[in-house]
Amino acid sequence: MRLDRYLANIGLGTRSEVRKIIKGGRVRVNSSIVDNGKKQIKEQDDQVQVDNKIIEYQDFFYYMLNKPQGVVSATNDKIQKTVLELLNERDCLRGLFPVGRLDKDTTGLLIITNDGKLAHQLLSPAHHVKKVYQAKIAGIVDENAVKKIASGIMLRNGERTKGAEVQVLKLEDNCSWIKITISEGKYHQIKRMFGALSMLVIELNRIEMGSLKLDASLEEGSYRKLTDNEILKLKEN
Question: Which SMART domains match (predicted)?
Fold first, then answer.
Protein backbone atom coordinates (compact mmCIF):
# COMPACT_ATOMS: atom_id res chain seq x y z
CA MET A 1 0.00 0.00 0.00
CA ARG A 2 1.20 3.53 -0.77
CA LEU A 3 2.28 5.52 2.26
CA ASP A 4 -0.07 8.44 1.52
CA ARG A 5 -3.02 6.07 1.19
CA TYR A 6 -2.02 4.30 4.40
CA LEU A 7 -2.05 7.54 6.37
CA ALA A 8 -5.31 8.71 4.78
CA ASN A 9 -6.95 5.35 5.50
CA ILE A 10 -6.23 5.59 9.22
CA GLY A 11 -7.86 9.02 9.34
CA LEU A 12 -4.73 11.17 9.68
CA GLY A 13 -6.13 13.52 7.06
CA THR A 14 -7.23 13.80 3.46
CA ARG A 15 -4.85 12.53 0.76
CA SER A 16 -3.65 16.10 0.08
CA GLU A 17 -3.19 16.78 3.81
CA VAL A 18 -1.11 13.67 4.40
CA ARG A 19 1.07 14.46 1.38
CA LYS A 20 1.99 17.76 3.04
CA ILE A 21 2.81 15.90 6.25
CA ILE A 22 5.02 13.47 4.32
CA LYS A 23 6.79 16.19 2.31
CA GLY A 24 7.42 18.05 5.56
CA GLY A 25 9.69 15.23 6.71
CA ARG A 26 7.42 14.32 9.61
CA VAL A 27 6.99 10.67 8.65
CA ARG A 28 9.37 7.79 9.33
CA VAL A 29 9.11 4.24 8.07
CA ASN A 30 11.19 1.77 10.06
CA SER A 31 13.04 4.74 11.65
CA SER A 32 13.98 6.33 8.30
CA ILE A 33 12.44 9.63 7.15
CA VAL A 34 10.33 9.21 4.02
CA ASP A 35 9.22 12.25 2.00
CA ASN A 36 7.58 10.43 -0.92
CA GLY A 37 3.93 9.44 -0.52
CA LYS A 38 4.26 6.86 -3.30
CA LYS A 39 6.51 4.65 -1.19
CA GLN A 40 5.03 1.18 -0.83
CA ILE A 41 4.71 -0.18 2.69
CA LYS A 42 3.43 -3.35 4.31
CA GLU A 43 0.85 -2.20 6.81
CA GLN A 44 1.22 -5.25 9.05
CA ASP A 45 5.03 -5.36 9.01
CA ASP A 46 6.44 -1.84 8.64
CA GLN A 47 6.56 0.58 11.56
CA VAL A 48 5.23 4.02 10.65
CA GLN A 49 5.80 7.08 12.81
CA VAL A 50 4.40 10.59 12.49
CA ASP A 51 6.07 13.27 14.59
CA ASN A 52 7.95 10.45 16.35
CA LYS A 53 4.70 8.74 17.41
CA ILE A 54 4.05 5.19 16.24
CA ILE A 55 0.91 4.92 14.10
CA GLU A 56 -1.08 1.71 14.46
CA TYR A 57 -2.85 0.61 11.31
CA GLN A 58 -6.61 0.24 11.69
CA ASP A 59 -8.63 -1.94 9.35
CA PHE A 60 -12.10 -1.01 10.52
CA PHE A 61 -13.79 2.19 11.65
CA TYR A 62 -16.99 2.54 13.63
CA TYR A 63 -19.13 5.65 14.10
CA MET A 64 -22.38 6.44 15.89
CA LEU A 65 -24.46 9.02 14.04
CA ASN A 66 -27.54 10.79 15.35
CA LYS A 67 -29.29 10.93 12.00
CA PRO A 68 -31.42 14.01 11.31
CA GLN A 69 -34.44 14.19 9.04
CA GLY A 70 -33.88 14.99 5.38
CA VAL A 71 -30.90 12.76 4.63
CA VAL A 72 -30.95 9.26 3.16
CA SER A 73 -29.21 6.18 4.54
CA ALA A 74 -27.05 5.49 1.50
CA THR A 75 -23.42 5.75 0.44
CA ASN A 76 -24.25 7.99 -2.52
CA ASP A 77 -27.26 9.58 -4.14
CA LYS A 78 -27.31 11.90 -7.15
CA ILE A 79 -30.28 13.89 -5.85
CA GLN A 80 -30.50 13.68 -2.08
CA LYS A 81 -27.98 14.29 0.69
CA THR A 82 -26.64 11.11 2.26
CA VAL A 83 -25.60 10.28 5.81
CA LEU A 84 -21.97 9.97 4.70
CA GLU A 85 -22.02 13.64 3.73
CA LEU A 86 -22.50 14.45 7.42
CA LEU A 87 -19.01 13.13 8.19
CA ASN A 88 -15.96 15.35 8.13
CA GLU A 89 -13.81 14.80 5.05
CA ARG A 90 -11.08 13.36 7.26
CA ASP A 91 -13.44 10.72 8.67
CA CYS A 92 -15.27 9.92 5.44
CA LEU A 93 -13.00 7.06 4.48
CA ARG A 94 -13.44 4.83 1.48
CA GLY A 95 -15.59 1.77 2.15
CA LEU A 96 -17.77 3.27 4.87
CA PHE A 97 -21.49 2.52 4.73
CA PRO A 98 -24.54 2.80 7.01
CA VAL A 99 -25.59 -0.38 8.81
CA GLY A 100 -29.16 -0.79 7.64
CA ARG A 101 -31.47 2.03 6.71
CA LEU A 102 -33.46 4.69 8.47
CA ASP A 103 -36.12 6.36 6.35
CA LYS A 104 -35.42 9.89 5.16
CA ASP A 105 -37.78 11.34 7.79
CA THR A 106 -36.66 8.99 10.60
CA THR A 107 -34.09 10.22 13.09
CA GLY A 108 -31.73 8.67 15.60
CA LEU A 109 -29.10 6.00 15.98
CA LEU A 110 -27.28 4.88 12.84
CA ILE A 111 -24.02 2.93 12.83
CA ILE A 112 -21.55 3.76 10.06
CA THR A 113 -18.65 1.40 9.48
CA ASN A 114 -16.57 -0.46 6.90
CA ASP A 115 -16.86 -3.75 8.83
CA GLY A 116 -19.07 -5.92 6.65
CA LYS A 117 -18.97 -8.87 9.03
CA LEU A 118 -20.36 -6.83 11.92
CA ALA A 119 -23.00 -5.26 9.68
CA HIS A 120 -24.18 -8.71 8.56
CA GLN A 121 -24.29 -9.87 12.16
CA LEU A 122 -26.44 -6.91 13.19
CA LEU A 123 -28.80 -7.12 10.21
CA SER A 124 -29.17 -10.86 9.69
CA PRO A 125 -32.68 -12.10 10.63
CA ALA A 126 -31.01 -15.15 12.18
CA HIS A 127 -29.50 -13.05 14.97
CA HIS A 128 -32.74 -11.27 16.04
CA VAL A 129 -30.91 -8.09 17.03
CA LYS A 130 -33.34 -5.79 18.83
CA LYS A 131 -33.94 -2.23 17.70
CA VAL A 132 -35.69 0.26 19.97
CA TYR A 133 -37.56 3.33 18.75
CA GLN A 134 -39.50 6.19 20.26
CA ALA A 135 -42.46 7.29 18.19
CA LYS A 136 -45.31 9.76 18.12
CA ILE A 137 -48.49 8.18 16.78
CA ALA A 138 -51.62 9.93 15.53
CA GLY A 139 -54.30 8.06 17.46
CA ILE A 140 -54.64 6.33 20.80
CA VAL A 141 -52.47 3.26 21.25
CA ASP A 142 -54.67 1.43 23.74
CA GLU A 143 -54.27 -1.93 25.46
CA ASN A 144 -55.91 -3.72 22.55
CA ALA A 145 -53.42 -2.24 20.07
CA VAL A 146 -50.50 -3.16 22.34
CA LYS A 147 -51.73 -6.77 22.48
CA LYS A 148 -52.16 -6.96 18.70
CA ILE A 149 -48.62 -5.68 18.14
CA ALA A 150 -47.28 -8.11 20.74
CA SER A 151 -48.82 -11.06 18.88
CA GLY A 152 -47.75 -9.87 15.43
CA ILE A 153 -49.47 -7.60 12.93
CA MET A 154 -50.87 -8.73 9.59
CA LEU A 155 -49.65 -6.09 7.15
CA ARG A 156 -51.76 -4.94 4.24
CA ASN A 157 -49.71 -7.03 1.81
CA GLY A 158 -50.57 -10.20 3.76
CA GLU A 159 -47.20 -10.46 5.48
CA ARG A 160 -47.18 -10.97 9.27
CA THR A 161 -44.65 -9.33 11.55
CA LYS A 162 -43.10 -10.94 14.58
CA GLY A 163 -44.39 -9.82 17.94
CA ALA A 164 -43.07 -6.47 19.14
CA GLU A 165 -43.02 -4.89 22.58
CA VAL A 166 -44.78 -1.54 23.01
CA GLN A 167 -44.67 0.75 26.01
CA VAL A 168 -47.04 3.72 26.02
CA LEU A 169 -45.20 6.73 27.45
CA LYS A 170 -47.85 9.45 27.13
CA LEU A 171 -51.32 10.10 25.70
CA GLU A 172 -52.22 13.65 24.75
CA ASP A 173 -54.37 15.47 22.15
CA ASN A 174 -55.37 12.21 20.46
CA CYS A 175 -51.70 11.30 20.02
CA SER A 176 -49.62 8.56 21.63
CA TRP A 177 -45.95 8.70 22.53
CA ILE A 178 -44.57 5.18 22.66
CA LYS A 179 -41.42 3.10 22.85
CA ILE A 180 -41.39 0.06 20.57
CA THR A 181 -38.88 -2.79 20.33
CA ILE A 182 -38.66 -4.90 17.17
CA SER A 183 -36.30 -7.67 16.08
CA GLU A 184 -36.93 -7.47 12.35
CA GLY A 185 -36.05 -5.00 9.65
CA LYS A 186 -38.89 -5.07 7.16
CA TYR A 187 -39.26 -2.12 4.80
CA HIS A 188 -41.01 0.78 6.63
CA GLN A 189 -41.98 -1.82 9.22
CA ILE A 190 -43.18 0.34 12.12
CA LYS A 191 -45.08 2.71 9.83
CA ARG A 192 -46.75 -0.25 8.13
CA MET A 193 -47.60 -1.92 11.45
CA PHE A 194 -49.46 1.12 12.70
CA GLY A 195 -50.93 1.71 9.25
CA ALA A 196 -52.53 -1.73 9.51
CA LEU A 197 -54.15 -0.48 12.73
CA SER A 198 -55.37 2.67 10.92
CA MET A 199 -52.86 4.85 12.74
CA LEU A 200 -50.20 7.20 11.41
CA VAL A 201 -46.59 7.46 12.60
CA ILE A 202 -45.83 11.17 12.90
CA GLU A 203 -42.32 10.96 14.34
CA LEU A 204 -39.90 8.04 14.60
CA ASN A 205 -36.56 8.07 16.38
CA ARG A 206 -34.26 5.06 16.89
CA ILE A 207 -32.56 5.04 20.29
CA GLU A 208 -31.01 1.56 20.50
CA MET A 209 -29.60 -1.14 18.23
CA GLY A 210 -28.44 -4.31 19.93
CA SER A 211 -26.27 -3.33 22.87
CA LEU A 212 -25.65 0.18 21.52
CA LYS A 213 -27.65 3.12 22.85
CA LEU A 214 -27.80 6.54 21.23
CA ASP A 215 -25.49 8.94 23.04
CA ALA A 216 -27.80 11.54 24.60
CA SER A 217 -25.11 14.20 24.18
CA LEU A 218 -25.07 13.83 20.37
CA GLU A 219 -27.12 16.48 18.62
CA GLU A 220 -28.94 15.55 15.42
CA GLY A 221 -26.45 15.51 12.55
CA SER A 222 -23.51 14.88 14.90
CA TYR A 223 -21.47 11.71 15.26
CA ARG A 224 -18.60 10.20 17.20
CA LYS A 225 -16.37 7.15 17.10
CA LEU A 226 -17.55 4.09 19.00
CA THR A 227 -15.53 3.18 22.06
CA ASP A 228 -13.62 -0.11 22.16
CA ASN A 229 -16.12 -1.40 24.73
CA GLU A 230 -19.11 -0.47 22.54
CA ILE A 231 -17.55 -2.26 19.57
CA LEU A 232 -16.81 -5.35 21.66
CA LYS A 233 -20.38 -5.53 22.98
CA LEU A 234 -21.84 -5.12 19.48
CA LYS A 235 -19.75 -8.03 18.25
CA GLU A 236 -21.09 -10.12 21.13
CA ASN A 237 -24.73 -9.52 20.11
Answer: S4 (SM00363)
